[in-house]
Amino acid sequence: MEDFTSRWETYLRNYEKKFVFTALKICSALKIDVPQEELRSFFINLYHKTFLSEDRDLSSCIEFMKRLKAKGIDLKFVATKAFLLTIGEFSIQCFHKESSIEPVKEMVERVDQILRACSGEVVEEEEDITSLVRKLISHRERAVDFSGVDPEGKENREFIEEFRRLHKRGESLELFNIYKGLHIKSTAPIVRVDSDGVVLEVGPTQLGAIAIDWYTLVRHPSLKGGVYGEVKSIEPEGRRVKLWRFKRVEGKEERRSSVRVKPKDIVEVSIRSEKGVNLLGYMLDISIDHINVFIPKKSLPFGEGEELKLGFQLEDCRDRGLMDLEVKGTALSVRPLPKGSSVVFRLHTSTRDEGKLSVYITCRQKEIVRDINEYVKEYLY
Fold first, then answer.
1. d(Cα 159, Cα 191) in Å, to the nearest integer?
2. 267-294 per-position pLDDT tens digit
3. φ, ψ of residue 303 in degrees (nearest 5)
């Protein structure tokens, strides 16, 4: 079998800098707190072991990944993202110069082998709790599956015709997304309705949230309930979004009376009671009167309706210090999660406690909106 990697060695050597630059950029976006030179050395080493070296000894890469995984940092995720960009650009080059897809297949196999070799040594029998918590507090609330929606189907055509009627009346739609727990909603005028979808003009923050999720929840009284709309295309310069496949919201639509936010990083929560409960949990999100806590236990020594004492620290953005909170909380709901349980507590706070919570939530709200707007500048323009 022909060794296509050897044939494309010059291209691969030249692409090394872009691979490393991309990986470091992802690390920066994820705020990975590791010296830049250590990360650079790791990604150069990984890239060489994958494409440019006869020596396939990954011991140095694996050791580095192990050390960072112990801190809750998943470099396999970063490497995968960077490799995907490499494969994409390599495929474009091959399209013009090769008569088959074999070179791309060889590259994909090499990347797959290298990542399997690394993860095979690093993955532990028990998933690291901090890594799991970071997944739970990531931006993705839930995915919406549009695969069963036929764009030419009767219901989808009826949605588009309804948007056409609303456009003729000059009406706007309400759009809704959730990013890191925060509600992102705005009113969007209908620019036009095509045969294959509706084009809306949206604000920059909504544009970022929609681009991240690739869908939005559309509301209007004439729609008789919420409707999810899948993005077909985005025109960032004109802040226009085209939605083309639609499905009704199934189940109860989420509504909140107060702002809720997810933490920036891990926040430990102690859970105690006079009956002997003594647990450690992790904050998933918080509002002025509720907190959602992940407890790494399937069977809990308390049930819904019980009152417990909660202790945790929140960052004070005014001086970058920490605010201690000791409050009572009533367990409202318990639901199972992988490797544990999610418990929502109603908080019984004093005026002083509410002041601390208000400071934290306001700061996180600003940070989350800033993150979305930076995403728009970085990736859409």
1. 16
2. 999 999 888 888 999 999 999 999 999 9
3. -130, 180
